[in-house]
Amino acid sequence: MAEFTLELNDDQKQVRDWLHGFAEDVIRPAAAEWDEREETPWPVIQEAAKVGIYSLDFYAQQFFDPTGLGIPMAMEELFWGDAGIALSIVGTGLAAVGVLANGTEEQIGTWIPQMYGDADDVKVAAFCSSEPDAGSDVASMRTRAVYDEAKDEWVLNGTKTWATNGGIANVHVVVAAVDAELGSKGHASFIVPPGTPGLSQGQKFKKHGIRASHTAEVVLEDVRVPGHCLLGGKEKLDERLARAREKAKAGGDRVKNAAMATFEASRPAVGAMAVGTARAAYEVALDYARTREQFGRPIIDNQGVAFQLADMRTQIDAARLLVWRASWMATTGKPFTSAEGSMSKLYASEVAKKVTAQAIQILGGNGYTREYPVERMHRDAAIYTIFEGTSEIQRLVIARTLSGLPIR
Ligand SMILES: Cc1cc2nc3c(=O)[nH]c(=O)nc-3n(C[C@H](O)[C@H](O)[C@H](O)COP(=O)(O)OP(=O)(O)OC[C@H]3O[C@@H](n4cnc5c(N)ncnc54)[C@H](O)[C@@H]3O)c2cc1C
């Protein structure tokens, strides 16, 4: 088991520098254009695929880094480049993690490569859990999966919303209720293979930030998928449902569900994305404060500005430490006895929102325009306190974990 260390090893430093180079040379220069276009930056994803950043191999390598720092380091660098484009590059990973967390080896081997495609023909994937009436309250999900035993097929019906890459994905991972009475414990995840009839894109959302990332509704009308598309397989599902029913009878509620397992695994990674955006804005603000002169001296000569920068940097470093701790704990199998994963996401996302707002203030009028990137970074940062569980939900998880009480 890897000891916790803040010292990156030579391999990690090499990967970090390589990613930083890609973020600086390819992502950052394209950021403003794709933000304005509000379209998936396919050429940039393709560039990432060509150099090996957009691939299962790359993420698997980072994911299985025994120190746990591979994923947060990668996320920080890519999102330092630009959050919208970076989410287009890593969004497929959320669906891939859903398969890794719940799928059999065969399912992992079959579907994950189809999620990425290859450098000549890149594909994306979508993880569809949220619904118009089931955001934070995942248990109230209305999408149903009914088993047609005669055909060994599952029939999916419902409407998903806010799905990153929804409708444009080659492979959709859809969470649906198999036994609605069990709430979130009655949910299961399904692969919807490319070209399956009945799945269509609903509304594509025009967003405040991360506009290069495609977000849309996904409508499921009598979508039939083969039995082998149930992640983890029927036997495992039946066992899990039987256990959940037993626990429900006995009044217990300790059975994990598929969607929650996915969210738990991805929370520190979202914290790392937030650290990347915060660091990017802080660096622009520091540079500006050193060079912008008012009253005959650089504005950083004023404590009012310098202290803001000192606080910004302190909070960014603190956020990174929480993220690294949680990622190390996840990789080394340490139990999250104080909800450290949620803590890292909560703190880093709030820091990103605050720091990017401070960066606008430090750049004054320029900060408020699209001539400088901090305006975009602030719009982008607002997503971190919302997706993968809002800040309020993170606090709820932390408070429940610490107190052992069902705090509402
Ligand atoms: C750009 C974007 C991309 C996304 N990508 C995906 C994706 O790929 N796949 C996917 O499945 N989902 C995705 N989501 C959905 C996202 O996870 C949800 O938006 C989020 O979980 C919040 O749900 P909601 O929007 O329905 O808000 P609601 O749950 O309606 O919450 C509204 C407000 O009420 C608060 N609130 C709710 N319940 C409580 C409570 N018990 N205590 C205190 N406060 C509470 C919330 O914190 C929030 O402030 C995405 C969302 C966005 C905006």
From TrEMBL:
Pfam family membership, one: Acyl-CoA_dh_N
Cofactors required: FAD
Organism this protein belongs to: Streptomyces purpureus
Superkingdom: Bacteria
InterPro entries attached to this UniProt entry: Acyl-CoA_DH_CS, Acyl-CoA_Oxase/DH_mid-dom, Acyl-CoA_Oxase/DH_mid-dom_sf, AcylCo_DH-like_C, AcylCo_DH/oxidase_C, AcylCoA_DH/ox_N, AcylCoA_DH/ox_N_sf, AcylCoA_DH/oxidase_NM_dom_sf
Name of the featured protein: Acyl-CoA dehydrogenase
Domain Acyl-CoA dehydrogenase/oxidase N-terminal intervals: 10-115
Domain Acyl-CoA dehydrogenase/oxidase C-terminal: 258-402
Keywords linked to the UniProt accession: FAD, Flavoprotein, Oxidoreductase
GO molecular-function term, one example from the UniProt record: acyl-CoA dehydrogenase activity
Ranges of residues in domain Acyl-CoA oxidase/dehydrogenase middle: 126-223
SUPFAM superfamilies with a match to the protein in the record: Acyl-CoA dehydrogenase C-terminal domain-like, Acyl-CoA dehydrogenase NM domain-like
Annotated signal peptide: none
Similarity annotation: Belongs to the acyl-CoA dehydrogenase family.
